[in-house]
Each structure stands twice: as C-alpha cells, then as structure tokens.
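Re: the pair you flagged

First of the two:
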Amino acid sequence: MTSLKKHLNILSWNVRGLNDIVKRSKVFAHLNCLHADILFLQETHIKHSCAHRLRCRWIGQMYHSTFSSKARGVSILIRKNIPFNHLSTKQDINGRYLIVTGTILEKHVTFVNLYAPNFDDPHFFRSLFNIIPEVDSTHLIIGGDFNCILDPFMDRHSPSPPKPSNSATVLNNLIHSLNIFDIWRLHHPTDKDYSFFSNVHNSYTRIDYFLTDFKLTPKILSSKYHNILISDHSPVSIAVDFGMETSPYSWRFNPTLLNEDHFKETFATHIAEFLTLNDKGDVSDSTLWEALKAVIRGQVISFQAERKRQRGKRLSEIETELPVLEDQFKLTSSNLTLASIMKLKYEYNTLLSEQISSLLLKIKQKQFELSDKPNRLLARQLRGIQASRAIKSIKLKSGTLTNKPTEINNVFREFYQELYSSQSSVDSLDITNFLRSLGLPKISEDAKENLNSDITLEEVSTAIRSFPNGKAAGPDGFCIEFYKAFSNQIGPLMLRMFKNSIENKKLPETLYSANIALILKKDKDSTDPSSYRPISLLGNDLKIFTKILANRLSKCISSIIHEDQTGFIPGRFSFHNVRRLMNIVYKSKGKHDKIAILALDAYKAFDSVEWSYIISTIEEFGLGQNFSSWVEMLYLCPSASVLTNNNRSCPFPLHRGTRQGCPLSPLLFAIAMEPLAISIRNHPHIFPVTMGGIKHQISLYADDVLFFLSEPERSLPFLFDLIRKFGTLSGYTVNWQKSEFMPLYDTMDPVYANNLPFRTVSELKYLGITVPRHFKSLYETNYKVMIDNLKSDVETWRVLPLTMIGRVNAIKMVTLPRFLYLFQNIPIFLTQLFFKTLDSVIMPFIWGYKAHRISKAHICKSKDVGGLGLPCFQHYYWAANLRALMYWRSAYPETLNSTIPAWLVIERDIQDSSLPALLFAENIPIRTFKKCNPIVVNSLKIWYKIRKVFKLPQTCSLTPIAYNHAFPPSQIDKTFLSWRENGIVSIGDLYINNVFASFAQLRQKFGLPPSHFFRYLQVRSYVKSNLPNFETYKPPEHLYYCMTSELNMKGLVSNFVECLNDSRVPPTQHLKMSWEKDLGIDISEDSWTEALRGIKSCSISSNFQLIQYKAVHRLHYSRTKLHSIYPSVSPLCIKCKSNEGTLAHLFWFCPKICKFWSEVFCFYSKVLKKDFPHDPLVAILGWAPSLETFSFNQIQSIQYGMTIAKKAILLMWNKESGPKFEMWLAEFSRVLHMEKIRYEIAGKPNKFLQIWKSFMEFLEGDD
C-alpha cells in the first residue's frame, strides 16, 4: 500500500496546570488538532502519583519531572505511532527540566524540556547545559519556557524595552559556543511574533523557544507560534524531517455514535430507504450486501463531517480573526482591541468546552460508575504504562536491524506471505489414504443432518449477540456494535447474503479481507518476526458466518475428538491435562520402569495447516458435504494486510493456515490434529505408559502436545518418523530445538540423550505450570515464584490513586486468577503458613499500609451481606480442589475407563478402599497411604482439612455402600456390587419417603432376592452405628450437596466459594450493639440486615459504597476513639466543644450536624411531597422501618442522598465548621447528571426518569 511522506511535528507549550479535567481535555483536544507527535509540556502541576492523568488514547510513551500539584512540572509525551526507542531519562527533583535520550529511525536524539525560573537566574542555564550530552554524538532539541528574552528589541512588544538580563546574556553565549540555533529566529530573522501575553503588564514577549544543533537544523522544515489560547502561552512547533512514513487513513465506525438516538433513528431510515430503492431482485444478495456497507460507510462519514463542520466553523472563524486583532494590538496597544481579543478567547474556550463536553461527561460518568471496579478502566491503571505496540526495529533477512517503518512493514509482509504460502507437494490421494488407514470415527447421522442444514435467521441473530463489544473491526471498519444496533433490519439481508454465497460457492470480496495485528509473545525477541502472534482482524460479517458454523460443530465435535484433546472442546478442561501429567510423573513406579515425557513445540501451528489436508480431514470424519463445502468456501481466496506502526501493507493472498481470530479456527485445528493422536495411539512400536490399567500415549491442548513414552530409546525413532510423515501431509512443523524431553529415570545413556534433537530437562513448563521431576519441588517452582511476583505487583500498585475498594478489586482482577490457576492445577497440601504469608502481603496493601481497623473476615464478606468481597484465598484453594474431588464420586473400581478422565483412572488405583468412600466415609489415617500416589495423598489431606474446618460428618446419605473401607463386608462380599447395579449406590438410597426402608420395601423397589436379607442387616447395623436417629432421612450438608452437581456445570468453583463463604460469615452483632448504644435506639435484626445489604445498593459508584461501608462498620476515628489512643487529644467534639465526640454525635447529634441533616430531610420532604421524619438510622445506616412507606425508586434516591450527605460530613470531619446544605446540593446535582448519562448510555432513559424526574424538576425550578 502506498505510503505518504510525513514529518515529525514537535511542539512545546506552557499549559499552566493540567489538574482540572476540563482544561486537560481542552489542551489534549487542541494538541491533537495541531497534529503534535512529540510534546514538551511545562507547568503541568501534576504530582508523580497522578502522572497517569496525562495519558490519552493517542499517547504512547510518557516521561515526567514533577514537583507538586500547584507548581512546575515538565513532561515529554510521544504519540503511539512514533518509533522512539528510549535509552535514558534524567529528571530534575525540582521539576524544572527533563532530559530524555533515545533513537528515532537509527538517529540518536536528545530531548531537553525545560521550565526556567521566572526570575533572573543565570546559574540555572549554566548548570543545565553542563549536563546536556555532547552535540557531536546526538541530535539535540531543547524546548520549553525559558522565561528569558533573548533579544529585548525583537522579542518584546513594550513601549520601553528592558536591558538584557543576566540569564539572557549567559544563554546567548551558550547558544553561540555550542553552535546551536534559535530555530524560529533562524527562519524568521526580521519578523516579530510572541509566545506569552501578560495580563498584568498588557505586554507580549517571546520567551518560549526551540533550540536545535547544527546537524539537525537543515532538517527543520518549518517553525511556528500558534495562537495564544487556553493558556497564556502559545504553543510553538517545529516540523522535522526524520524520514517518517505513514499509511493512508483507514475508516472505522465509531461505536459511540450508537449512544445517540438521533443517529440511530437517522440510519435506521437510511437502511430502510436503501433496501426500498435497491432490493428489487435485479442484483444478487451478495452484491446488495456489499453496496449496503459502502453506502452506509459514506453516509456515516458525511454525518460526522457535517457535525464537525458545523461545530468547527466558528472555531475556525475565531482562529482567523484572533491573529488580526493581536497584530493590531501589537501596533496600537488599544484597550478596545484588547477587550475584543479577550472576548474572542472566552468564546473560543466556551466553544471548545462544548465540543468536548459530551465526551468529557461520559469519561466522568465512567469514572463515577466504574472507578475502582474490576473492569478495563481499573485494568489500565494496574498495568501502569502500557507497553507501546510500536515495533521499533526488526531483523532483515541479512541479520541487520532496521527501524524504518516501511522496511519493518515489508519484513513482516514478506514473513507472513511466505508463512501462509502452501508448502505441500503431496497428492490429495496420499492424504486420503493416510486418513482412511486410521479408521477415523464418524459423527452420528442426526448430528450430520443438523450440521449441514440450512442456516436460519435465529442463528444469525444468536451469533451477532454472542460477540462482546469493544473489539477491533476488520478492514471494512464495521464493528459488532453496528450489527447489534441494526440487526433487525440487516439480519435478514445478511442471511440472504450467506445463502447466496453458499449457492455460488463464494463469499463477497470484502469478507475475504483481513488485517493482521501483531502481539509480541511473552519473553520473546522483539526483533524477530516469528516472535509475534498474528491475530486476524476479520470483517464481523464473516465472523458471524463462522460463528454459526462453530456453534453447530461444537455440539458434536466431542464425539469424534478423543478425550486426550481438551483444547476448545466443550466440557473439557486444561486441568485434566496437567493432572494427568502429574499423576504419571509422581505416581510410584517400579525401579526398572523407563518412562519419559516429550513436550513438542510446534512452529506456527495454527498458521501452517494445509487447507487441502483440513478439507480431507473434514470429509473423512463424516461431517457432511455441505459443511465441507462451506469451509472450502471460507478458504477460497482470502487475503491479508499486515499492520505495523500505523502502516498497512499491500494485501497478499493466503494459501494455508487457520486464522487466529476466526471463531471456527480452534475447532478446525482440533480436527486437524486428531489424526496425529490416533496414529500415535495405533502405532505398535511407540510404547505407551500403562497406569491404572490404561495406556497413556498423548495429551493435547490445542497445539500443546505431550507424549508419554515407555522405553523411549526404542519409541523415539518411530515417533520421529510418524511426526515427519504427518507434517508432510498436514503442514505441521515441530521446532525440535525448543521442544523439551524429561526422562523419569536415571539410566538413560548420556551419549544417546546428547544426540537427541531436543533439550533434556529436569522440569517441564506445561500450560503455565512448572512440573519438576520431584513432587517436593512443586511448591518452590510455582507457589513461591507467584508470591514473589505478588510482592512486586503490590509495590508497583502502591503509587496508584486507588481507594480501598480499588485495592480489593486489584487483588480480584490480577492476583486471584493467577493463584486460582495454580490451585486448580496443582493438588498439593498448602499449610496455614502459606495463607498467612499471602495475607502479610495483601492486607497491608488493602489498608494502604495504615492501621487495620476491622478484621479481614469483614472485608472478605460478600457484598450481599455488607462486605467488600475481598477474595479469601484459602476458600478458593479449597473450592478448586473440591471441583477435582467431585470426579472421585464416580470413580468406582469397576467404572468403565472410557467414561472418566484418564487422570482419574490412575488416581482410583488404590488399595483397601475406593475414591467415593474416601470422600464420604470415615477418615483413613494419612500414614496408611504413605507409599501411595502423592496426588491422592495430598488431595486427601486437603479434603480432611475441609471436613475438619467445616465440621462435616464422616458418614452421610452420600456414603457409598460398595467398596467402603468403613463397612468391611463391602470389601469382601461382591453382593453389594449387584446392589449398586440395581440402584442402591449410597446410604441415601436405603430411604423411601424419608424413612429407612424395610427389607421388603427394598426388595420391591430394587428387586433384591430373599437371600440378601443378611446383607441388609449388615448395612442397617452400619448405618445405625454411624448416623444418630438413622430411621429418618437427613439430607447431606450443603457442601456435600454441592459436590453432587453436574461435573460440566459452569461456575462450579464460584459455587463452592459461595458455599464456603456462607459457612463462615463473621458476626456483626457487636457493630449493631455499638450503634444502638451510641444512638440510644433499638435496631431490629431486619433493619440491620437491610443496612448491610444497602452498602452495595446505596450507589453504583464504588466510592460512595466505600463511604457507606466505613460508616456502617464504624471505621472512622471518633474523638473518643482518638482520646483512648492518644490521651492528649480531647474527647470533645471539635465543632460544638461541649459533648463527647462519639461516632453518633459526629454523624448526627452535634448541633451543626443536626442543622445540616434537617435541611437534607426537608429537601426530600419537598421533592417527594411527603413527610419524611428525621431518622438517624436512615441517615447513618441507610435503612429504617420508616422507609417502608416509600416506593423502591424513592428509597433508591434517599439512599443516594444520605451517602452524599455523609461524604459532606466527612469532608468537614476535622474542621470546626459543619457541612453546608449548598455543598450537599451541588454534589447531589453532579451525581444526578452522572446518573442521567449512565442510564442514557445503557439505553434506559425512562428508568432514570422513574427515579429522578421529581428531583430534576425541583432542581430546575429551583434554579
């Protein structure tokens, strides 16, 4: 694709403070309009902890030298698409200067941003220039506010020019001696222009400069002072020719347009008009679809252009008028002209505010609603400075590095063009013969019929709804939000387009196009093209079609894909693979067993599969002619362009590979890999590992392949041959140098091992888990590493402006998933010391490294019962293991191997009992299993700990009868196996209508012969001795009941966590009693429960929820509390100075607080037109019986207002004056506007009116 030459626009601006979000938004909107690439900002007034505020969507790299929130501060910001490679940074502790060095397109550059003192200080310039690098070795650009006039005659507009300052003299000498140039003066030797206007002196001066070295000066294309707007300084910019190139603009639909009713109504009409005018049967449905997209694209562009034109027209007029007036003022110094200038600037700022107000309000609303909640907003803060996606340099085929954007893009284009070129030279008959020799399984006829039936409108609608919002669009620019918004109108045409394509065996042209976005793999060389994961950004219309096919295929794929493959197969989980691997590695083996594990590293596995092989495999699995032809249609003529550094390559054709980003690709890849797995299992000379009575040969999770080899020295040659043959037919290529081989015995010939094509290791990294040879090393290689990472994380997060809820959610979002993954995959017994270590890292962070004011248990409570929902890691650990233990329930010795996971077959191989009995019968001492499988032993230790903590009975209705070690007859008498076959599995089956059944009743229900009466007596005796009052059925405890859930049910771990949390809810009666004592009021249990629940519902804002949480849980230090800690502090209220400052007094009884509450309650009485008694329970706890007379919507509004009132009280907590009603009303009005935007974005404006209409009318009337 043709690239356009582009200069680098470097801009310097003294912005005079950026803490205010409105001003900050104006500044960045203006900078973006000026097309600034590298920004030198002075007087940012941003503290280091708030530096993230300067990040916006187009800024990539940021460097700061900060001082305080009211003074100084300089920053250098670099646009995302600029290939700047950072080398070093030098900051001034006083926030005066910042020196950043790096390279741009192999050119070494030094950026110096300075804000000089506003008094005569020549020492500042001498000191600064002493630490600037030698100009001979770099390209130097110095910019900023020098607060110094270099030439008093040319650079100042004043009746009486002053004498040159000492700073000016020193600076001029330094400029001449270092051979650097004031670039604007060089370009404009006789012109006068100014960068600063002083309101005090009514004078203009030029004190903002760019200085450049002699080598860079010829490359400066232009220099310019822009209008003085927003700040009292003008931006100064230079255009530098660094040989940059960029690609033409690619259109993308802006999904925020869909938040506007006017836009949706307008385009619903456009779509209807288009279909009325063009859908007349004279063109194909595919052509009609392409035309619709083209027309809508053009109309959207016109819609946005017209809006921008109208909004920008006046701004442009002002920008034209303003320089004329400023030139007049420079000549005349007329106060009338000055007044006109001020008026235009005010109008410009007002218009600019209106331009950004809609976006700004939505940003504020997101901060209000989502701040500190577990979502992308918080995730961006936790990630810190996001790594730029700019690829700064890449290796050419010659091995040399290039950092030229065009060359980088060409390297990737050539790499992927070669990667996606077919390497196959085999005949299709060879593929067919290979596949047919394997005896591949076939799907059922019913499944085949469903898979190949006509596509329906309901499937189209379901597919559209299934995609998440916020994902990148394909080359056509249409995001999924567009299809969701107009699915009722365009869905039928899309279905017709699909059917027309199927009939013609070809999709519309735009559906074959894709953009390839690149994501650097973890810990990979960023200069190697193969280190990046290619994600195909497909058109959403194509993804909808492939999603329909994927939905169909997922329903039947498990019938043809063996349980060895768990990747992307519904109902299968990665922990099956890891647990199987660990069982094989750690189960006791004979001394002469020769077992080894081989982990393959496939080279670009998804991208290398040959299409001819995929189609042949689909046919041989019997998926049907229609389905096969649809997949063939998908791969008829696709093409792709590579995106790098905002450059997009020319499109190139694809000839192989399953595209990562296509919903169907994972399932097709699983089908493509299955013949390899089958051929391994069928091969007579690749010897399997036999454990638990079954053969273990291969385990797959998508392209992660493990081989379990017995007699590896004999098996490996045949394995190599088979993989080579499979690769020739399918395109599958193994990177042998990165593959890992772990022998589980010590007698392998070292010469043989050294000659193998892969590395021999003592530990494997598999699916994110490190599996060492020795079981005892599991903790060190996984959990200890994770704790060290956690310590590093919380140290990084300390500087973030997070509330307590934000810190809780940081642990939820980042820390919990990492540890939960270990809990689910590593079944080792963790002692209490481990969880204490976790708490020692997490809890200080949660409390902001301040004193803990309430126990951890109250923070870990669910939000539904008044907590903050901090994860209890021990509960998650137990829940993850309970999920695995659920599988033990069905693992009887005679259960068919094919019906349970392979790891479970190994684990059930125990002596003197069965896995179901170990769960629900009397505990067996752990020492009994000393030489047993360590996975089983550790799982039992975990289970026994859970039983002990939650006081679970060892015998219950779920206790099995057969194979029960606690019931010895079942171990020696096979009769009880027949009982199990007849339906008497557990003790609970012995009850009929909740009463222990007689033998006659059991005979009638289960068909037992009379000869089994003695067995009945034996069982009855066992039950009687273990269950008190055994005659009446007692349901199993809730935790036991949870273990009877379906194994494939979603959210199993969460269900267990909820169950465990509910069993250990900390009491809050002491808090209730404290409030009763303070307030002198009895609080009913129902009111207290509602108060705890109301913490979550008092507001959508987590900040307000935290206010309510702290109030209810009495976390604020009262004067009496402070007096008990520090006797020198008076216990009296700081406001009234006459009563003890208890929490109740400070929140309610103080006269200054009483007056405030009176005004708040009166306001509600006026708005709701209903008497509202002044109730401290409503004010402080958010609930009282007096609220029962109000509607649900009214209660919502009341709880909002009470929380805002407490915020006002807390803001004045340590001040003598009390909160003002006006202060509450202003905050209430602000929150109301945030609520309005929230409901509008959610498409529920009527819901907002139901709650807040009376308040809006009252406030507007009051205005």
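Second of the two:
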Amino acid sequence: MTSTALVSIMPMAAYAGPADTIIDNGEVIGDDPLEQNESLTVSAGAISATFENSAASLTIGAGNAITLGDGLGDTLTLSVETDGTSALQTLTFDSVITTDPGTTNNANTLTINLFEAAGAGTGDIATTNFNGTVVAEPGDSITINVGEGDANFGGVANVADINFAGDGTVEFSNANGALTGNVTTTAGNGTGTLDLSNAGFTNIIGDIGASGAALKLIKLNGSDQLGLSTNNNSIFATTIEVGDAGGATAISAGTTVADIRFTGSANGELSFVKTNAILTGDVTTATDGVGTLRLGSNQTVTGNIGASGAALAGLQFDGFSDGTVIDGDVFAQTITIASTATSTLAGATNVGNINFTADGEIVLNGNLTGNVTTGTNGTGTLNLSNAATQTITGFVGTSTNGLLSVELNNDTITGAVFATSIETAGTTIFKNNVTTTNALTTAAGGTVVFDSTFGDNVINGTVDAVAGVTDATMNVTGSTNAEFNGVIGGSQAFNTLNILNTGPTIFNEDVSATTINASAGTKTFDGIVTATNFNASAGTTTFNTSNSIGTLAITNGALVSHTGNGLVGEASGATETVLVTGTNSSWTSGGDIRVGGSGNGTLTIADGGTVSVDAGFDNLDIAVLAGSTGTLNIGAALGSTAVGAGTLNAATLAFGAGTGTLNFNHTETSYDFDAAITGTGTINQVSGVTNLTGDASGFTGTTNVSGGTLNVDNVHGTLMNVSGATLQTTDALLLDGTDLAISSGGTVQSNGTGTGGIGSNASSTGSASVTGAGSSLVMAGGLVVGGDNASSGTLTISAGGTVQSSANSVIGLNATSTGAVTVTGPNSSWTNTGNLTVGDQGDATLIISDGGTVSSLNGLITGNNASTSSATVTGADSAWTIAGDLTIGDNGAGIGSKTGTLTIADGGVVNVNSGSGTTHLAKNSDIGGILNIGAAAGDTAVAAGTLNAATLAFGDGIGTLNFKHTGTNYNFDAAITMSGVNTFATINHVAGVTNLTADSSGFAGDTIVNGGTLNITNKLGGAIVNIGDTSGSNGTVNVSGAAANWTTNNILRVGKNGTGTLTIADGGTVTNGSGSIGLNASSNGTVTVTGPGSSWTNT
C-alpha cells in the first residue's frame, strides 16, 4: 500500500531512568547507543533516548539499522529528546531507518520526534543529521516532527510527513528521494524552513504548509520538485528561495502561496509545470539579471515578476494550452514564448525583451520596455488589444524575422515594427518604421497614427481599415520624413486620413479615404488618390498621377500640384469639387484642367487663391462632353455671400459641349480675368468689379450680369443678361450673335466712342432689351440696330428703361439689313444726341408706344436702296422729339425702291423742332414717304396722333399723307407745302373728321377723300381732287369760312366712282380746272354752295 505523509508534532513521555537508556515499549533494552554494525528491531511501541547533558552528541553509526518489524499495523515512535535547558548540539543517524523491508502494505507507522523532551527539558536538538536513508516501505508511513533545530536528511524514500513543531529547519543534503507525505507546521504561521538547496534531486510530493499555517522558508536548488503534477498539491510559505545550482527546479503544485526569490549569483531556474497552477506572491531576485521563471499551461501568477533594478534573467512560457496569466508587473531581461499557447502579462509595467521561439501569443495589458523578436519569420503574436493605453518602448520584430501578428488597441510603439499583419483599434501610435507582409488594419472607430517626431518613418505594406468599417482614421504626424510604400485603404478605405507631419510625407502607392486632411509639410502622392474630400490646409501637396477626389479644398496658403491633367468630375456620373482659397493657396497643373469631363465638376478660386494651368500655357476646360456640367467660381458660388477673388492663370477658359458656367461673385473693386474665353457656356457676374481682359470673341454662350460691374472689351456670346448691375465695354458695344437683356436697374455702359451695333456685322443677328426703371444702355458713341448686309438687330426699351446714344444712330444701316426698335411704357426712352435714321439702306422699324419717348437731333425715316422702313408713335404720352427736321423718305435709287412710313396714332406726338420745324415727305426722287395720322390706309382706323411741326413738305418722291382716324374734330396744324417739283404727292383722307387749319396753299399734289370728313378752314392748293373716288367710298369735304380757299389746277370730281359730298359755306371758295358731280355710273355726287361769299369756280 502507498503510505500517506502526515506532518505532526508528537510529544513523548519522558523516561525517568538513567541517561542514555533505550526503551522498547516501556521495557529497558539497553543503555548504550547503537554502535557500528549493530541493529535494533522492534515490533511496536516506543524507542526513546534522552539526554541530560545539553552539550552531548548522539551518533547512530553507519551500517546500523533501525527497523520497524513486519507485524501488521505496528507502530513505532522514535524519540530523541533533551531534558536540559540547552540544545543537543548534534544528533547523527548514520544508519538506515526503515519500516518492514520486503513486506508491503502492512500499514506500519514510524514516528520520529526531534525536539525537547516533555517535563523539565526545554532545549532543542540543534542539528539532526540523517546520513543514512530514511525509507518508508509501500503501505507504511514515517512521520518526522522537528522542533527548533535543524534536521538534515541525506536521503529519503517515501517518507510520509514532516511537521515543524517549532521554527526549525529540515534540510536535504545530497539526497535523492521522494517525500510522499506533507510538510506542515504547528508552531504558527510563517515557521519552519524546508531546505533543499544542497540536495541532488528531491521530490516532495505532498502538500507544504497550509492556509494560515505557512512555512517560513523553502530553499530550492538543483533539480528539486515540489508537488506532483497528477495531484492538486498546495504550497504555503512566506518565501521560496531558488539558488543557482545547475538543473531546473520544478513546482508541480496546483496552488503556491509564497514569494519566490532567486538568491544565487548565477542563473537559477524555477518551473511551474502543473496545468492550472496558481502562484500567489511575487517573484524577485537578489541580483539583477539572475533567475529564470518558467510557466506552463493555464497558470496564474498574482504577484510581480522581478522589480526595477532587480530584473530576472528570464521569464519563459512553456504551456501547451492557453490561459497563463501574470497579474503583476514583470521585470525580466528576456521573456521567452516557447509554446504555441496564449499567455498574458496583465500588469501595468513590463520590462524586458520578448522573444518568440515558438508560434505562440503573448497578451500585454500594460506597458513594455524592451524589444519583441522572433527566431522564425512569420511566427509569434503580440497582443495589446485590450482597451488600456499601453506603450512598447522598443522594436517589434526585425527586418529578417518579423512577427506573425501584432494586435494593438490604444497603444504606442516607439521602435520599428515588422510583422505579417498588424491589427489596431482605439488610438494606436507608431513612432518608427512599420513593415507588414499582408496588411495593417484598423478596427471600427480606431485611429492609427504614424509619428515621425523622433526620426524618419518608413511604412512598408498595405494599411487598411477592417473590411466593412467606415469610421476608421489614419494620422501621419511628426516633423521628419514619412514614407508609405504600400497601398493605403485599398481593401477598405479610411474614413479620415490626417496628414499633419511638418516634414516630407510620401505615398508611393494608391491612397483611399473618405476625407483626407493635409496640413503642414510636403506631401507627395505617386499613386491614385481616391477621396470624397481632400482638404489641403497648409504645406505643399504633389499629385503625380490621376486621382478621384470628390472635393479638393486648398486653403490657408497650401500648395497643390500635379504633373498631368487636373480632372474634376471626369467620370460619367461623378460629382467633384475643388476649392482654392486663401492668400498663397495654389493649385498648379502640369497639363490641362478639366472641370466636368463626363461628370459634374466645380472649381472655386477665392480670397487670393491661384490656379495655374501649366504655368498659364494650357487651357481650363469646362463641361467638356455632352451631358456634363462644369462650374468655375471666382470668389463664391451663386447664392453665397461674395468673398475675395482668386486668380486663374490659364491660356483659355474653354466651354465644351456640356453645361458650363463661369461665376464672378467677389468683393474686388477691380479684378482682371485674363484668360481667353471660348465655347458655349454661361458667365454670371454677381458681385464685384470684373474686367474681362482676355479675348472673349470665341465665346458663344450667355452672360448674366446681376451684381457689381462687368467690364469687357466688347460683348460676346449669344445672350447677355444685365440685372441690377453694370456691364462696361471698353470698345463700342457690338451685339453680333448676342442677345442683351438689361433689367432691374442694370446698366450697360459702352465706353467706346465709335458706333455700337446690335446685329452690326454682315449676316449677324443681335438684340438688346432694356427693361425696368433704372435700367439703361449708355453709348459713348452712336448706335446701329441692324448694320451690315444681311444683318438683323432688335432693340426693346420698356417699363422705364432708357438708352442713351451720344452720336448718330441708325436702324437698318446697310442694304438687306433689318433693324427694329421698340420704346414702350411710361418713362421708357431713347435719347440720341445725334441724328436718328430709321432705315438708312436696310429695312427698319421704330415703334414708340404707351408713353415711351425718343429724342434725336434730326429724324430720318428711310434712306437708300430697296427697303421699307417705318416709325410708329402711338399711345398717350408717346413722343418722338426731334430738335431739327424730320424726313420721311429720302435718297431713293429708283421708283418705289424704298418707302418710309411714319404713323402717329392714339395720342402719340411727333415734335419737330418744338413745332417750328419741317417734316419732309418723300424728299428726294424715286423714294416713297408716307405719313399716317391714325392708321395706314388699309388698316382699321384708330385715334389720331399729332404731328407738331410748322410744315409738312412734299418732296420729289412719292409722298402720301393718310388721315384714317376716329377723331371727330381733329386739327392738322402743319402747313402742307411742296419742296419738290414732281406731282407724286397725295393727301388721302379715309376716316375721321380732320381740320386742315394751316395755310397749305403751296400744296400741289392730289387730294382724295374716300371716307370721313375733310374740313378746309384755311387755304389748300392741289392738282386732281376726287371726293368718293372709289366704288363704295363716301367722302365729304367742307370748305367753310371766309378764310377757307381750296384752289386746284386740275379736275375736281365729286362722286367719281363712289359717293362724294362737297359743301362750300360761309364765304368759302373753291376754284378748280374742270369739275364733275357723279362722274361714273352708280356714283353719287353732291355739291352745296351756301352762304354769302361762298363760291365754286370751274375754269
């Protein structure tokens, strides 16, 4: 049977007989010590030896034997006691002490007491030497009770128990054996010393101490072992000391409650080998760099390992399964991971170098001062993934042997890092080079920081966010060089990349992030940059390839450049923006810049920012392809508050086939835009004073001027809107292919003293509208509306708009040109300081209506060639005021080749030299001139207007004066005369009641009255007169009053083909060549001559 160790103190009854007496079960069997080669065999009972002389010694010689008999259940107590007051100096057993040899499982018990005798004795045995072997046969047990002295065992075998009855020492010297029992103390907690430091191999299998009854000290050395790995032993001691002899000392106990201290000067070693073992206590060393602690599987150390200035030589993890944890701080020169399990350093401070000799994992919950290495590339995992803030002061891996994995969370590594993969969370800071074979990844909400403050950083390998993570951040900080040789955000883009390094930062591969913030320092991107937002707020940024950036913001003096073309909104469906703002902020492109290639692009240059396109030699292309949109803002965007302007340094701003816009919304008082402008787009002048100094003749789009002032050499494009703002041209305004709209108080100032034109060049078209109070077109020279051949121009002045011309103006200048001007509405006006010609050689129309006014030096309707021109003045307060004379029809080139018409209706007024001037009608030969009072002959009668002139003079052409109005008492006050010699002059009265009040005796043309009533109250001359000339007509002429005289030199017919009535009354007289009444069939004629002095004379 297997004996069980039991440590106890067994007091013995003292023998009262003579000294040096040996008793067997109460029987005196001898009074001399056992001598050499003698033996003592007892079957049961007790053997005791007492000594009165405290200084005496007792020796049981070598070769003798103390043997417990072979009876079943025999019990032997061997007591060696002193009854003096001082210790026995030495007790020596040179003999073998054994239970029944050769007999097993008799359950015999041997107890050895080594302490003071009962009764008067108080002294201990100072030293007991067991030079022989103490053997408990299987099934038997030996218990040794030790007092205050020392017990030194040369060898043991299956000894059951050792008990400390006092604060004594049990020492195993050069013994090889096993203590199968327990080691206890009954002398109080922290008493008894178990010393194995001088032994060979000693295995103490049982428990050592107990909770509340711990040993004071256990000394280990060599290859000793405490506990049995198959048992759940426990060890309780104040201190366990480990010496420096060779071999590995092992503790196989399940629970060890003790402080462990390495005391040697060389490297002693202590191993905890039992799975799930717990060490409660600190592990220290007396000498810095001495002692190695080896831990196994799933073990726990609750205390500290080493101390500052007294680090262990080594700490090694040998376990084959996970879970070994050191709760306290660790100070060890080398921490070796020699297993594939996961071990944890949970303390706040860890000092020492970690080395992986196997592909295991070490978890750090605190700081590490030291390096982390591995003996084989791609092995070992360093895990700092708990949420605590930790620092590794040293490097991790080497360039030849990198770790398999590094897992970080809120940590800082000051040395270089080499690993197959690196996982980060929280805020992780790298202060040196980083090399990964696979990738460095950052978890959700994490921030990875590369800090070059203390030296250059080179980052080799891919740096990504974890797949699916959209809120990871990468920061580049420091003040020296930082170089990234792998893809950034390739598999999963970072949410934010902050480049804060004040030194140079180089990205040699592609970079992807939702937002990139680049501040001080020099940033170089050699790969493709993909970002929703890129904010360059300081320093210099260089792009060496094409990029995909949603919004690029260059601010605070930042410099951004790239070697190729700048593409903003290049891809179909893409929407991208560039902002360059702030003094010295600049974007420099090595090639063209395309804003809106196939997608949507916006470029804003503001507050002193500069965009330079290949040093000003290349183009800025806007909205290149159909379906794209492109916008260039100088200052702010439309709808935003104006800010300072920036500068575009480009040869040409070229609008493409898409929808392109150039916005000027700035606060400058004189801003020069030097680039040429071509293509079809929109220019919006919103705020500030803008000078278009480049060649814009190739621009074919729309210009809107809604605020501030736009100064141009001339107007270009198809449409220009000036609303509440000012457009100024250096040259005379030319609207060739351009429609100009001035509204809401807008002003266009044409500063060129030459003649401006609306549709002025051959085959061109142009229009201008000036609408609203305060809206104005001011010409420093004259104005042509419809200029060269085949051109067409239109001018509309309405709702209080005004036009001022400072020289002669023409509507329809050259042959085959057409021009039309409308001035309508109260306070709408066209003021000409020179002559106004309506139809010089082209067709022209002037309409003055609803209170509109026109003024000129002289007025001319129709000039040369085969065209027709007309002017209409209609509506109350509508007026054409002419300082000189008015000519209707002039300079014809053939009969009927050109006709000028003036219609004055509905209260409209034509003032000719304030009523004292002359209106010429068909002034020259081969020209037609028509003056309509009311409506034209073929139109419906309307209310009459007024010709305020002294004379209406028919010239050598074909002139016609039509009265077709609705007035019942209309006075025509101008004298009708002849300034020419031909007879193609006609007064044609169609409707209304008209009173000829002036002396028109100089008129030599025909008079036809086919409708209404013509009252002659003064003199009228003429040739042929037909009253009721045409079939169905019905005309009336009254010649009434003594001053009324109608004298013609040809026939007078009253009812030629229609109905005619002539009444001569109250002294009126009519004289003609021949006369007829009712000339033709179905005609009717009536002549009445009544009143004194009235007469009709036919010569």
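The radius of gyration is 62 Å.

-B.
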